[in-house]
Amino acid sequence: MSKTGGPLHGLRVLEFTHMVMGPAAGLVLADLGAEVIKVEPIGGDKTRKLKGSGAGYFPMYNRNKKSLAIDLKSEEGKAIALALADQADVFIENFRPGALEALGFGYSALSARNPRLIYCSEKGFLDGPYAHRTALDEVAQMMGGLAYMTGPPGRPLRAGASVIDVTGGMFGAIGALAALNERQTTGKGRHVTASLFETTVFLVGQHIAQYAVTGSPAAPMPARVSAWAVYDVFDAKDDEKVFVGVVSDGQWTSFCKAFGLDDWATDPSLAGNNDRVAHRGLILPRLRALFAGYSKQDLMDKLEKIGLPFAPIQRPEDLLEDPHLLANGSLLNMQLPEGGEVSLPALPLTLDDDRPGLMLDPPRIGAHSVEVLGALGHTTEEIENLVSRGLVQVS
Asked: Is 197 in the same domain as 263?
């Protein structure tokens, strides 16, 4: 996006967020060119210090943002944040209900000062009986039906990534962009709210619809009745695995021809997709034996040549060497705040041939405090005074 600054160039976003959902919303806007100022407490967003499965949260969802570290509970820190809110187009927050209202940064307070402000709240639940509850990605997956659909019967299993946090953040960004477009006509902002629970329910909507259409509840994915006869993970040589799909009658014909399955190609009982689904018990054992004789690469080469859906079973770290991702700019090389380098996924889209890229590394705590305060009109002496009193942090 370096040529034009991105389609959101000139848009200012003030972000009061932590963890994943709120930062993901800001990331979308930042990658598309908005100036995103992340307001952190003195000592930094606690997300920076997470270990284990949370260790990647901060670097993944906070690139292309500026860090301002201030004491919001002080009069000076509050004044700084309010001055920024007065100039902002979008305000993003994902704190527990009532937390920002208590600090004077709720929607009513900020919109009264800046009627054009789009205030984006990323919450656990939309309004209703659950609105007071504390929610996390995993909580939403469990109560929203996704964990039930992901694991085998009797063993609910969360998805292997923070899919609800990220998707909820995306819905928040979509709502904010819609409100910005409306503001061009009305001149007024909106309070946009996205939520984890309702996002999860939206994602399992296809299974709700399946129940309405068929009259039978959807089975968890490991126990589902597949819509296609060949739509599985198969073993290849050397303990490797490949996913293979055959999802149309034309693909079935090409598949049989390529693998020498002439008897199946001419069998009228296997001519239609639903016929093949009914004969999965016949088809799959033979294919498993057939594919076990191929190396992973030979099998994939053959499937690619005939144009069938296939996929190697890759781990996240394998993607760093994926030739397709390396060739098309899908991995962005950046510096970690604590030192070291990392390659992380870009937004999965292009605008014409322009790919959202890296403009700012994930910031150190208060890396842009001096810049942001200077733009607000604070003198060097005033900034130094705030720093010396522990009300502003710089790095």
From this structure: no
